[in-house]
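Changelog-adjacent note: as of this version, every example in the card shows the full chain rather than a window. The one below runs 51 residues end to end.
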Amino acid sequence: MKKIRAIGFILLVVGVVLHLFVENDSIDFVTGLFMGAGFALLILGQLKRNI
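Full-length structure tokens:
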């Protein structure tokens, strides 16, 4: 598992945990940001190409 994908997985897990356990409405933006960034990094993986 590459380092970027591991960071994406951690961000996704943190976003889900915050969404489930924090009852504040203003935290929804942050959880959405964490989950979106984590999902994108998990799917994209390595961003740099070797040419």
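Structural remarks: The radius of gyration is 13 Å.
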